[in-house]
Amino acid sequence: MSSTNKISDQRILRIVQLAAIGLFLGRGLQHLFWDAPFRTFLWDEAIMSDFVKSWLSMSWEDYVRSPEMDENIQNLIKGFGFFYVLMAILSTFIKKVPKFLTYFLWAGSASLIVLALLYMKNAFFSTGQFFEYSLQFLTPVFLFLIFYQKISKQKLLLFFKIAIAFTFVCHGLYAVGYYPRPFLFVQMSMRTFGLTDAQAAIFLDMAGYLDFVVAVLIFVPGRIAKWALAYCVFWGFLTTFARIVGNFYPEFWMESLSKWTPESLYRFPHFLIPLAALILQKQIIFSND
User: What is the per-residue pLDDT for 8?
Assistant: First the structure.
């Protein structure tokens, strides 16, 4: 790779690093103190019944009713939580840890892909549910590639944009109701912006279609992509912190923050990766002028 194509701007590294830290810390807190959809797989009789009978020597009814098995599943979830917290620490001190430890970023990405698959299964195998997590499960890979200068600016920008497009399009599919629109979307819109139920529906339709538009415009050469990425930063930031703002109840402030802060943290890539892409886009435009 030529020196002119290297990711020399330390802002890019710091932004992607912060995205990874928020992502892993949020997922860690989620797994340690709340829940993750492991049971959607481990309690699927069609998948697990033969294993349960052959390897655990239990009937399916005993398995799903066993407090011990349920505790084992919960401990598995917490184990992933500790792993994600360790990955957040690794991302924080990536410049100081031994080189071989940084390769665990790939394991972090793989575990997030598995998590996305579990969410997809929980959503009746909606592929949009899986690809909505593209920015999340690719962020550790982006951090690794940038830290070791394994990719050119142009290729990195392209991969950024692909991940952004997948995430925004799939988010838009839920917003416009192609997939069942989550009530959480309506609730956050109403509480964050003071909308009625009908107004929230219109707002979400508009936001969803804008998701589709910017997912295309970010690939248009020149300054159009810059403005489209700027919108992605704004909208990604808004939807990230709407999790806290739209679900905060002063009378239950501790419960509100403990539940929704992790949900905001692991969405940091939704606005920080577009911000990194925007900086790269400006650099490439400037170099071509």
Answer: 62
Among candidate residues 282, 259, 272, the one with its CA nearest the CA of residue 13: 272
- Residue 272 in 3-state DSSP? helix
Q: Are 276 and 227 in contact (CB under 8 A)?
A: no
Residue pair 78/31 in contact (Cβ under 8 Å)? The answer is: yes
Count the neighbouring beta carbons within 10 Å of the beta carbon of residue 170: 23
Instruction: Map tokens 């590294």 to a residue.
Output: 13
pTM of the full structure: 0.94
Q: Tell me the per-residue pLDDT of 66-116, one tens digit each, with 9 for 90 and over.
A: 999 999 999 999 999 999 999 999 999 999 999 999 999 999 999 999 999
First to last CA, the chain: 22
Mean pLDDT over each residue of the chain, to the nearest integer: 94
CA separation for the pair 249, 103 (Å, rounded): 41
**Helical residues (DSSP H) of 176-268, grouped into ranges:** 183-193, 197-217, 223-245, 253-265
Distance between CA 281 and CA 197 in Å, rounded? Answer: 38
Amino acid 150 reads K
Q: Where are the alpha helices (DSSP H) in the chain?
A: 10-33, 39-42, 45-55, 60-65, 67-92, 99-102, 104-122, 127-131, 134-147, 153-175, 183-193, 197-217, 223-245, 253-265, 269-288
Residue 144: both structure tokens together:
């690794």
In the predicted model, what is the mean pLDDT of residues 137-155? 93
Instruction: Tell me how far CA of residue 75 lies from CA of 70, 88, 151, 197, 209, in angstroms.
Output: 9, 20, 38, 40, 41
